[in-house]
Automatic annotation (TrEMBL):
It comes from Bacillus norwichensis. The gene is ypjB. Keywords: Membrane, Signal, Transmembrane, Transmembrane helix. Pfam families: Spore_YpjB (PF09577). This is Sporulation protein YpjB. The chain crosses the membrane at residues 224-244. Residues 1-22 form the signal peptide. InterPro entries: Spore_YpjB (IPR014231). It comes from the Bacteria.
Length: 260
């Protein structure tokens, strides 16, 4: 009887873990939907409505992220900063529509990076990022400084759209390595020569290609690993208990037969 109660208690722990994970995932889905809605409204210049959605997001995010501790410190920091920029984009009367959309898109991608359990949306930016980088590379190889500066500005603008998402999905070491190479391009843009920049540009191009082809391991939520671990342990314990009871019963039955 005690063994049965112990097994029942363990199953209760597992299912409570599953319920907690489902609840957490539901909250992330809701935040993700709000971020997407804010982006769609921004694209159609419905800025007051987009602002309202972003304010709702802030309240929900504060509740889920701070009070209930469902996000890591990095996720909290990145989403808070990205949300602040998105709110600024829809309230700044002097900002162009393209700039508004770019900033709110960055926020949308960052929210998805937190919520996604599979391939994140920022990976879909590969074509735009690589196209803009190719413009930088071509201008550098041709020695055209004016075209180089113009293309570099375009590339940097596109890269900043996915940068918050990268802060969430990449390790600090990988992101620092990538950012340092891009910063080098920007900082020394006036002093380049074809020979000097060829190796650097090719190295950065390889890093960008690897970034999109292998965006990194999609780490599951810690609570999910806890549930998986608990479930596996429960199954093992249950099977072991059943096998032991069966073995013990067979042994006692054999003993009784020998005594007859």
């Amino acid at each position: 009887m005690r063994s049965f109660v112990a097994i029942l208690f363990t199953f209760c722990l597992v299912f409570s873990g599953l319920f907690a994970f489902a609840s957490s995932n539901s909250a992330l889905v809701e935040l993700d939907k709000m971020a997407d809605e804010a982006l769609q409204l921004t694209k159609f210049s419905r800025l007051e409505e987009a602002k309202s959605i972003l304010e709702r997001f802030s309240v929900q995010f504060s509740k889920e992220g701070i009070k209930e501790g469902k996000f890591t410190m990095d996720e909290l920091r990145v989403l808070t900063a990205s949300h602040h920029e998105a709110l600024r984009a829809v309230t700044n009367i002097n900002m162009s529509l393209d700039e508004r959309v770019r900033i709110v898109t960055s926020f949308r991608l960052a929210t998805d990076a937190v919520a996604s359990t599979h391939q994140p949306m920022w990976v879909e930016m590969e074509a735009s990022v690589m196209k803009d980088f190719q413009g930088v590379k071509n201008a550098a190889l041709e020695g055209d400084k004016d075209a180089y500066n113009q293309n570099l500005n375009t590339f940097l603008s596109t890269y900043t759209v996915i940068q918050p998402s990268l802060k969430i999905d990449l390790t600090a070491e990988k992101l620092q390595k990538l950012d340092s190479k891009i910063t080098y391009l920007d900082r020394y843009r006036a002093d380049f020569s074809e020979q000097e920049w060829t190796a650097h540009l090719e190295s950065l191009e390889q890093d960008l290609q690897k970034l999109f082809s292998d965006p990194g391991e999609d780490e599951a939520d810690p609570s999910l690993w806890w549930v998986i671990s608990m479930t596996g342990s429960t199954i093992i314990l249950t099977l072991s208990y059943v096998s032991w009871r069966k073995y013990r019963g067979q042994k006692q039955q054999s003993k009784r037969k020998r005594l007859k």
